[in-house]
User: Which sequence fits this backbone?
């Protein structure tokens, strides 16, 4: 007798929310009671339903896991970099989930000093994350942050690297990041608000003192801003930063004067964004000052830092976004973005013979990496494409010779990048805008509409989704899938204006761009509605929620990872982490025009009686970025509203948060769930 598996239905408990004279009834508002046993029971029942419904794929998941794991070099290590007399290395050992951080004094032939073995430190914890290692200038002390819950709340501790003793002092509720003053005994760090988790205070801790004696150096009282602290590459200045979506502000203090007073670099001015880099007797400033939408580079003396003293070094360009700089004694290296592509520009200080690094295809990512030394002609950068594994390259800026220090190995003997085709194509959005799509597939596919096709996008916060390589993804490509990234508005892929046209009251461009990209790949016969799948996470999960309300017929399946789908309720609750700092991204629903606009696209509020694609929705109970109850409520509402017999699964990791599992192999297991969901819908069983 076949067991009848019934999907769980959440209890309806109507809750009314009134704003601007408009009343919304939320039947599942009660699911936000994290400590309520009824909530936990519901989440467990959804997990049980998902597991039973996918039981037939469990062996396939296990096989996929072994397949993906077999491509990974388990005993791997990073390219060492030299900093302050020590080579620093991150490495993994075979069969172990977590990294080992080590260093070697002056030579790679020197004896290895193990700083942190995260495999040992993670014992007894379901989740473990080490972050923010900061070594004092005398190389004796290392501050580090640990999170064992996955809510991005770190406890900072301090280790004596000479004796391996970890001091008993614990600095709680921090971001994990910290920086040492030049005296090697004063540590500055950032704490979070206990309710909202906004990083709002900079503290100063003295070695040998108690945490209760730590002094608040700066309190960021504007709840739309977050604060942080770091030390300049030159080591001369400590810098406190404050940032919101549209505005930034910095304060500086000589690192050899930790008990002095931080001085404003340039006070915050609404919609003035800038970042600073110190070299010699000057600061270099990347800024949008003077309506430089795509940013420009300016320079100012270190003793005259307010904006009236800034002078142009690289002017603003309408077609090129300035993304970052690396300063060397004889070179300035500029990271730019033009026509959606990364560019690395080398500018000799003598003004002679500037040039760009040559990249031949259009589906690549290149960026500068660890460049901690001013006095060198070697630039270290990374390169990869959708079919080319990541490599770390040392480039001599004078001779133009390059040395590949490492290329990611893909084990198993079956991978050859020449077996794959990469393309960049352009879809036309409904307003005439051309939207780029990067895609990769096995050679020889036919454009006959029969190919399974996974389209991914994010499209928020000005975050660009550059093409990248994934050895895990090969498990889809080798089974006939086409994988693509839609570079939709809301990201910064084609410059700052690309972002501005996909936020606030133009947010719907993000959703319609994705739908138009979907229609384009169908029109071009790459795939069809029966074989097209969509995926996005967090704000990309909002995207997934919006597109299935608007155009559900285009997709056979959708994966929504930790999706932000209950937009208005969340944005009206200023106790939730991130909310107030997000007003410049989404709008403030306390203002009616933003409320009305959000209401018109909020996925949870716009669920309707219609057929929906097959769906896998994932979340984590301890998520601090998108609270678990958003996807839980959304699935509960979809269960009673959707028509037809499409699959709908909610998979809640009861032990983790926004980033998912912490170990490198545990994270792969989460991907195997997603891939078997897709492959099963395609009838691919092995």
Assistant:
């Amino acid at each position: 007798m076949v067991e009848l598996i019934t999907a769980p239905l959440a209890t309806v408990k109507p809750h009314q929310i009134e704003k601007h004279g408009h009343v919304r009834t939320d039947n599942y508002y009660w699911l936000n009671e994290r400590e309520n046993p009824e909530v936990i029971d519901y989440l467990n029942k959804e997990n049980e339903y998902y597991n039973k419904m996918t039981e037939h794929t469990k062996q396939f998941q296990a096989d996929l896991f072994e397949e993906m794991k077999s491509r990974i070099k388990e005993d791997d290590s990073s390219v060492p970099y030299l900093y302050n007399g020590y080579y620093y290395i991150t490495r993994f050992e075979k069969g172990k989930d977590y990294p080992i951080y080590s260093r070697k004094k002056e030579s790679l032939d020197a004896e290895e000093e193990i700083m942190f073995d995260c495999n040992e430190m993670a014992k007894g914890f379901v989740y473990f994350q080490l972050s923010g290692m900061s070594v004092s200038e005398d190389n004796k002390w290392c501050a580090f942050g640990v999170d064992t819950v996955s809510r991005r709340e770190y406890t900072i501790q301090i280790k004596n690297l000479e004796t391996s003793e970890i001091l008993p002092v614990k600095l709680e509720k921090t971001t994990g990041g910290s920086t040492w003053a030049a005296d090697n005994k004063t540590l500055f760090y950032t704490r979070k608000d206990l309710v909202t988790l906004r990083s709002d205070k900079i503290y100063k801790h003295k070695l040998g003192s108690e945490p209760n004696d730590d002094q608040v150096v700066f309190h960021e009282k504007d709840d739309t801003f977050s604060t942080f602290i770091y030390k300049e590459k030159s080591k001369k200045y400590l810098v406190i930063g404050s940032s919101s979506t549209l505005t930034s502000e910095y304060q500086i203090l000589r690192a050899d004067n930790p008990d002095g007073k931080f001085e404003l670099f340039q006070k915050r001015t609404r919609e003035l964004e800038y970042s600073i880099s110190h070299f010699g007797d000057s600061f270099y400033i990347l800024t949008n000052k003077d309506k430089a939408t795509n940013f420009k580079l300016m320079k100012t003396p270190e003793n005259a830092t307010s904006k009236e003293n800034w002078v142009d070094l690289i002017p603003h360009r309408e077609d090129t976004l300035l993304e970052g700089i690396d300063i060397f004694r004889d070179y300035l290296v500029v990271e730019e973005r033009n026509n959606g592509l990364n560019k690395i520009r080398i500018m000799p200080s003598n003004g002679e013979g500037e040039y760009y690094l040559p990249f031949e295809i259009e589906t690549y990512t290149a960026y500068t990496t660890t460049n901690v030394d001013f006095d060198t002609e070697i630039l270290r950068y990374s390169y990869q494409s959708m079919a080319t594994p990541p490599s770390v390259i040392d480039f001599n800026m004078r001779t133009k010779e390059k040395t590949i220090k490492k290329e990611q190995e893909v084990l198993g003997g079956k991978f050859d990048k020449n077996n794959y085709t990469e393309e960049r194509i352009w879809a036309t959005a409904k307003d005439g805008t051309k939207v780029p799509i990067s895609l990769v597939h096995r050679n020889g596919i036919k454009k006959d509409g029969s190919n399974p096709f996974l389209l991914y996008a994010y499209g928020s916060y000005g975050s660009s989704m550059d093409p990248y390589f994934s050895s895990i993804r090969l498990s889809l490509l080798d089974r006939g899938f086409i994988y693509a990234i839609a570079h939709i508005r809301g990201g910064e892929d084609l410059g700052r204006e690309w972002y501005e046209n996909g936020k606030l009251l133009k947010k719907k461009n993000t959703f319609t761009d994705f739908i138009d990209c979907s229609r384009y790949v169908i029109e071009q016969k790459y795939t069809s509605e029966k074989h097209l799948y969509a995926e996005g996470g967090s704000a990309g999960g909002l995207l997934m929620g919006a597109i299935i309300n608007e155009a559900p017929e285009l997709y056979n399946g959708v994966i929504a990872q930790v999706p932000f789908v209950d937009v208005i309720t969340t944005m009206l609750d200023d106790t939730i982490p991130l909310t107030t700092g997000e007003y410049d991204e989404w709008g403030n629903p306390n203002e009616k025009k933003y409320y009305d606009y959000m209401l018109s696209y909020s996925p949870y509020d716009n669920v309707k009686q219609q057929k929906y694609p097959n769906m896998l929705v994932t979340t984590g109970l301890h998520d601090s970025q998108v609270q678990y109850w958003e996807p839980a409520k959304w699935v509960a509402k979809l269960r009673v509203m959707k028509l037809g017999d499409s699959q709908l699964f909610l998979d809640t990791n009861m032990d983790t948060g926004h980033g998912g599992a912490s170990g490198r192999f545990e994270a792969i297991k989460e991907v195997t769930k997603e891939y078997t969901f897709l492959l099963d819908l395609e009838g691919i069983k092995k």
The longest strand covers residues 171-180. The mean pLDDT is 94.
